[in-house]
Amino acid sequence: MCVRICVFELTGLKNMRRLLLLLLGLLLLQQSFEFVIDGEREEQTSDIQDHRERHKRAVLTSGEQEDFEAIRGDDITIKSYKVESHITSRFAHTTVRSSVVNSGSKAQSIGFNVQIPKQAFITSFTMTVNGVSFVGSVKEKTMARNLYAQARARGKAAGIVRANSQDMETFKTEVYVPSGSSIDFELHYQEMMLRKLGVYEHSLYLQPGRLVPQLQVDVYIFEPKGISKVQTLNTFGTQFAEMVRVTSSTNKAHIVFKPSLQHQRKCDNCTGTMIDGIFTVKYDVNRDNAAEIQVSDGHFVQFFAPTQLTPLPKNIVFVIDVSGSMWGVKMKQTVEAMQAILDDLTIDDNFSIIDFNHNVRCWSEELVPGSSIQITDAKKYIQSIKPNGGTNINEALMRAVQILVRASNQGLVDPRSVSMIILVSDGDPTVGEIKLSTIQKNVKRVMREEFSLFSLGIGFDVDYDFLERIAMENRGMAQRIYANHDAAEQLRTFYSQVSSPLLRRITVQFPEDTVSNITQNRFDKYFSGSELMVAGKVLPSDTNTLTSFTTASAAKLDITLETEADTLELDKELAKHQHSFTGFAKQMWAYITIKQLIAERSLAPTAAKKRKITQRIVALAVDHQFVTPLTAMLVESEDGRERLLADSPKDPKHGCCSGRTGGGAGSPVHVVYQLPPWVQSTTPAPSHAVVGKTEEIKLPQHISLVDNDPHFIVHLPRSDMDICFNIDSKPGHILNLVSDSAAGVVVNGQLIGSKQTHKGKLKTYFGIISVYYQPDGVSVSISTDSIIITDGRNNHSFSWGAAAEFAQDGLNVSIVKNAHVSITINNNIRVMVLLHRVWKKHPINVDFLGIYIPNDNQYSPLVHGLIGQFSREPEVNVYDIHQGVDPLKKEATMEVKGNKLLVTRGWQKDYRQDTKHGVNVYCWFIHNSGKGFINGHYTDYIVPNLSSFLQTL
């Protein structure tokens, strides 16, 4: 945000400027303060602007960047320059403080300049001059301007802090003070950390311009679920890496950078400083589950960042500007980037390339698979391009959409794939349709709901505002590419962010009357390494639990995820930590809402709609003290007699671009995944008719099961009898439980051993249960750590830590959090796997699984397996019941399958209702691993792998 404290000149004449400076000097003798003159007039932006004016440069040039200083003045002493950031749950509050003394013999202007990330909102500014304090508060712009005007009219000290209409990155103030004056500056701003390529990035711009006795940076991070990694980078030089101290624990980290005066010097005797660049902290958090809800101070934020999902196939049309302005470095860097991007495509991806100047050419009129032959040919085509001519953006985009539409209509693309257009351009249209609003309407009209448009603007001759609008309106995002030596890396980095779509059509919903004022909760896509956030207010409730339901489509899989959070727990935790940002949830909700409303406002179809949105933005910004393009900060002395105005620009119709200061990675880009639903209205909390608990599959009371170490219980419905036996096998062995080659279903279990022997015996348990459905090639592998669903090349992994439901063709998988997994195949075969957790430090026992299978499963006549064979119930006769050796257990003779067996009356456990103690199931126990009751010997049921069918016995 380029912001200046200044006084308007009544004329732009230099003579008037000199006269006012003279008057300021006289005022200073009377110990009052005036704020430096800038001379910029804020005028109403015309709808019809000169082409060059519309594209005013919005960032510092390399030369200006070199001259940038945080503190400006001819003969001044910087006593201290300190930056402190508090990051809590991805939301950062940063404070920049500096103490300066005018050491010169004359009065002079002293400047305080801060470069801040473009997505940040300034929240407070305080300046103290010789004990007179000026404190800022955000107000509606008109009100703030009126108060400012009143101060000017009374002849009091007045000034304006205003933002450059196109650069929202640099905050600048200047104050004219007498010799010996002491000035303290303090600026606060807040921002939300956006996850890109698997990390959050917090960048601080350190450019004091001279040596500072007390130069220090402190970054405090608190993440309730824990911090998985922290690293720091800087652009000052590798020698400074050793001066960064990082201390961290499970959920906290403190990063300190405190170079001494000597370390700051460019050389031993130099007075210049080496601290001139960007200090960056990168980190990520622990994730037990794909979704996490955090509740604090009556507000909630849900974070959604699933991993271990197979990327969706992509259909990409690259649309590349090859007009004359792309000649030289721009084209060279674009070609270099495209070589790497094309190498990233897989055989499952489809693509084509369009290049355009005044004409439009297609490398291929049809989408082609990303085979090595096609990629090699495409690379040769890219390398042969010679930029020349004009720019026909409209026709190029129309042709790109036609290619995607034709492929979709002909059924050539996977219905679950992601179709996107990636536009790379460095200028405005000059050929064909050149009116930007018409091009925007044309693109919107032909784009299908399942297509996305991503725009990359190279340099500053392009109308970035236009590229951002057409991308946002068509479920994509835009990014500016800076035309320098690393433009190819910028292009590759951008592509990396969108190259791995994992989910489509994501919706986050909440039960009725639990939340209100929620932010965008429907997203078109989720990309690997990113994160989706939904925030809102928590309504009063009798329960301390907030529940959400997230639905999405993965590769050949539909997902429903249930997430819960305690509404009181986090506030108690935050109160324990000195450096946590206790108001983060409330501020983050307001931050996200305002950002989305600003985006909505840019797409508003009518003036009335725009005014209504404006009112909402202003109300929120004033309430949460954010300086936005529609609000202003009034900075007043303590007695209210002297005032400044922190004012942002009029709403520009054109050229609103997102700049980047040189010397580092680009500022984080807020990804808009689709045309937000809040363009029509803010998404309300869904009703109970829409949202309910993840459906739990109920199994019959009487059932066949295998649990504990491992105990088999086979229920015989006709005889109304339960038969028990154990299998004494070895860890690592895989036992077949159900094998139905005709139905294509197999259920196998792999044994694990206890930590050590007990009474000379090593107990075994099921550590993995696998259900394989051959017709769809889908397997569900359940371990004590995770649930993995695999279909051919696609692999999806989920934890036990959240309730979820997945549907794929005839297969349905339901996870009840930390309890059990239910699997249904074609609505006629059901399996439940129960999770048993033991004390982690137990010297013997381990976590294990139990499996429960209903007797009414509809198998084919060919079904077999240790459990499956009993779908054909054998004739059983039990007689000669008598007292056994153990007086508590009777014995009897059982006739079954032509065998006479000695059996013992006892009981085993069914843990479905009581997972800790179980419910007794009385049964006749067969000794010797079920010999005589099962067909053959138990070793006949050992199979080589988890998806193996049982060979015919």
Number of strands: 53
| Helix count, DSSP H or I runs of 4 or more residues | 15
Helical residue percent?
Answer: 10-25%
Strand order of the largest sheet: 29-27-31-32-44-45-46-47-48-35-36-37-52-51-50-49
| Spans of at least 5 consecutive residues with low confidence | 1-66, 155-168, 648-695
Beta-strand proportion: 35-45%
User: Would you tell me the structural class of the helices and strands?
Assistant: alpha+beta
In this structure, how is the largest beta sheet organized? Answer: 16 strands, mixed
Shape: globular
- Rg, Å, rounded: 34 Å
Describe the fold and architecture.
The protein is of the alpha+beta class and 953 residues long. 18% of the residues lie in helices and 38% in strands. The chain has 15 helices and 53 strands. The strands form 7 sheets. The chain has a 16-stranded mixed beta sheet. Strands 1-8-34-33-7-6-10-4-3-13-16-15 form a 12-stranded mixed beta sheet. Strands 20, 21, 22, 23, 24, 25 and 26 form a 7-stranded mixed beta sheet that branches. α8 (393-409) runs parallel beside α9 (436-446) and α9 runs parallel beside α10 (464-473). The longest helix has 19 residues, at 584-602.
Element layout with pairings:
Elements: E1 3-6, H1 14-29, H2 51-54, H3 62-67, E2 71-72, E3 76-88, E4 91-102, E5 108-115, E6 121-129, E7 132-140, H4 141-153, E8 158-163, E9 170-177, E10 182-192, E11 195-196, E12 199-206, E13 214-222, E14 227-234, E15 244-248, E16 252-257, H5 261-264, E17 277-285, E18 291-296, E19 299-304, E20 314-321, H6 329-344, E21 350-356, E22 360-362, E23 368-369, H7 372-383, H8 393-409, E24 418-425, H9 436-446, E25 451-458, H10 464-473, E26 478-481, H11 487-498, E27 501-509, E28 515-516, E29 522-527, E30 532-538, E31 545-554, E32 557-566, H12 569-575, H13 584-602, H14 607-624, E33 631-637, E34 643-647, E35 704-707, E36 711-716, E37 721-726, E38 734-740, E39 745-753, E40 764-773, E41 778-783, E42 786-791, E43 794-799, E44 803-808, E45 811-816, E46 820-825, E47 829-836, E48 848-853, E49 876-883, E50 890-896, E51 899-910, E52 919-926, H15 927-930, E53 942-943
Parallel strand pairs: 3-13, 8-34, 20-21, 20-24, 24-25, 25-26, 37-52
Antiparallel strand pairs: 1-8, 2-5, 3-4, 4-10, 5-9, 6-7, 6-10, 7-33, 11-12, 12-17, 13-16, 14-17, 15-16, 18-19, 19-30, 21-22, 21-23, 27-29, 27-31, 28-30, 31-32, 32-44, 33-34, 35-36, 35-48, 36-37, 38-39, 38-53, 39-40, 40-41, 41-42, 42-43, 44-45, 45-46, 46-47, 47-48, 49-50, 50-51, 51-52
Helix pairs in contact: 6-7, 6-11, 8-9, 9-10, 13-14
